[in-house]
Specification:
Layout lengths: L4 H14 L1 H4 L4 H17 L4 H20 L3 E7 L3 H12 L5 E5 L3 H7 L8 E7 L14 E4 L8 H6 L5 E4 L13 E3 L3 H8 L3 E5 L1 H4 L2 H10 L2 E5 L2 H4 L14 E2 L4 E7 L6 H14 L5 E7 L10 H14 L8 E7 L2 H18 L22
Parallel strand pairs: 1-3, 1-4, 2-3, 4-5, 7-8, 10-11, 11-12
Antiparallel strand pairs: 5-6, 7-9, 9-10
Helix pairs in contact: 1-3, 10-14
Length: 374
Amino acid sequence: MQSGLEAALAYLSSTQEKHGRLLGGALESTRRYLFETHFTFQHEKILHPKLTKLLTLVSRWSKEQDLRNTTAACAILTYTFPEKTSREILETLSGLHGIQATLYKSAAEVNTAQEDNDEVKLDIYVVNGLAITEDFPWGSFDFVLDYDPSGTIRREELTRSSKLQAHVSLTTIAKALLDKQPIETKGSNDSQIQGQRDQYIFIGSEKITQNKDLLHLLETSHNVLIYERRNSNAKPNDSLSKMCQQPDVMIDERTCIQLQHLPSLDDEREYEGLRDTVLALSLKCHKCCIIMYSSKQPDYAFTGDVLRHLSILFASFAHFQKSEFEVEILYSFTIEDTAKLIRQIGDKARAQSTVWNNMEWPKRKWLTNEASAV
């Protein structure tokens, strides 16, 4: 039960079959690693880290209700591979004392189930995120858990809920950026956390400053200010223009971020543009984090030419392993996650800096308004 390994192997095999002549053996090491990991997990019956954390949270909530002699309802929302993920969650939770886990069918079912069985302390409903409609009963749940967070969830509805005890989001990102514990949000905790963080100042392109929603989230939720550098004005009109391209976000002297709309990679020009940009950045940075972002729409992005171009990009980025330039690929399916990743990349760059100490890093002068001017 590994929530995606089987699908990744299937897509990888399909890509190799269709484009074997072009790719050669570029993906063989990746395929072998995924296959060995999948076999090991199955043989040793190792749960996916998300399932392990889910089991811990649900057990804790059930014990809390038992001590209070009360009954509670919990919604677990799934968006990526919902049928497969829902089946894994139900199998993991089956047989736990005081817990009843079922697939969500209707709002009426939520309101009546708690009255039918006194032994059940926690009624869990596994909800296919794509099936959430306008009349979804957000206010009927004491606990809401985003198994794979999506922008579909209506946070304003949760804020108005008088029953809500906890809202938890489980995320899986690069190991170096991974928060060890999920964040439980109650009320306006975001503003409290933001107030405790040091303010970061980054240089950003028009892609960042013209995205008002992203800019607002960075400033209000993550205490990040963006100084604009108009990269379009800085590009020379000569044969070397491709080598003068700038990143979307400059974190510090060594680290940058490039944003790429994932579905648009089906266009050959988008793929070539990203490739040329990363090549140019390899001459001026030590690390480039590429955030592949997608919209809220449920259409699956890893199809057709998108998958083919991603495979070629991964193969080309592998050549940088021999140099001092590192490329890290991150994925985001909501604008909230994009803003969070930008902040987390800044946190990591600060922790790994060998030039500035931890306290001086946010105050470095090279990112002042004057220094960022073209």
